[in-house]
Design goal:
Pfam families: FERM_C, FERM_M. The protein is an alpha+beta fold. The chain is 42% helix and 21% strand.
Length: 196
């Protein structure tokens, strides 16, 4: 549990999982409770200014940062009496509700040279266009094979004669992405009964 808590906390602070300001303050309050204990054991909460509370891309001016830090101190107060283990579990549960949790996304190009995001999640592979078009999902059942050819990733679809092609920056990226997708696809096929 503790190692998983550290990993998801790192994902939040590194900006890999996006949270709203309200979610970020809740998460920071739980992290302070898990890492430092009860609110009332501190005379001052000045130490919070030195502690990394928010995602890196939240860097604001000092006044905003001070206001957010005060809100975290208030949030921390509400968690008094909760053990470190309970706070870690609450943090993990909160993170699981964040948009993008359980997804891994890679920047690629489609056949027309447009920048898109190719991602993987428990149900299959998805494509998000930066323009804002609807997300296209290829479920594991619909995918026959996943391979790479030089710096391209090829999805062979069942019941369709065409393949879907994506282009990456280099051979190593294409190799990594195709192996990741293929191993998840294999896992799904081996455990199909469980997932259904």
């Amino acid at each position: 549990r503790y190692q998983y808590y550290l990993q998801v906390k790192k994902d939040v602070l590194d900006g890999r999982l996006i949270s709203s300001f309200e979610q970020g303050i809740r998460l920071a309050g739980l992290a302070v409770q898990a890492d430092f204990g009860d609110y009332n054991q501190f005379e001052s909460h000045d130490f919070l200014r030195e502690y990394v509370l928010f995602p890196m891309d939240w860097v604001q001016d000092e006044a905003v940062l001070e206001e957010l830090t005060q809100k975290v101190a208030q949030e921390h107060r509400t968690h008094s009496g909760i053990t470190a283990a309970e706070a870690e579990l609450m943090y993990i549960n909160e993170v699981e509700r964040l948009d993008g949790f359980g997804q891994e996304i890679f920047p690629v190009k489609d056949n027309h040279g447009n920048d898109i995001h190719l991602g993987i999640f428990f149900m299959g592979i998805f494509i998000k266009n930066r323009i804002g078009r609807t997300t296209v999902i290829y479920r594991w059942n619909d995918i026959g094979n996943i391979a790479h050819n030089k710096s391209s990733i090829v999805l062979e679809l069942i019941n369709k004669e065409e393949n879907v092609l994506f282009h990456t920056d280099d051979l190593e990226n294409a190799k990594y992405i195709s192996r990741l997708f293929a191993s998840r696809h294999k896992f799904y096929k081996q455990n199909k009964i469980c997932t259904e």
